[in-house]
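Reopening closed ticket. The problem is back. First fold of the pair:
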Amino acid sequence: MLCDIARNLGDEQLERIKTLEQDLGLTIVAFSCRSLEPQREERLRKAMDELGPVLRAEPAPADETQLDRIRSAEEAMGLSLVAVQS
């Protein structure tokens, strides 16, 4: 699976993420993910291992209510959302 920072988000998606950030008091990073063919997946994994992690941010401690709201937004928008401490 390949995930990168979500681009070209619509106004509604951006507003939903901003509202979620304000309501939860967390910073939310949105990722767009897609599956790759197994051979490409393996090549990408090897290349990423050589590069090391790109995004270095501590995950935010979240309670179950916050996680439920984040999961709900993920499902509605088709994105992976990560809450980080800012």
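Second fold of the pair, where the issue appears:
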Amino acid sequence: MDDDFEEPSGPRDYDEQTDAFRFDLDDLVERYLHEFDINTITMIGALQEKIQELVNDGSFEADLEIDE
């Protein structure tokens, strides 16, 4: 048996991982709204830039059916 193996301690399935991401994102947004002098329009712009970056990097997967 491999002594270096550690059982994962985080979310195990896709739904749990998605929930964890959303909860962390919610906490981050709330923290920035309370601790920083940043408005929601600026935050939305930053999030849109990140969305575009993820799409451009190929991290976006979709199963699209195209009717011909």
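Update: turned out to be a display glitch only; the data is intact. The first helix runs from residue 14 to 35. Residues 14-56 form one domain. Please close again.
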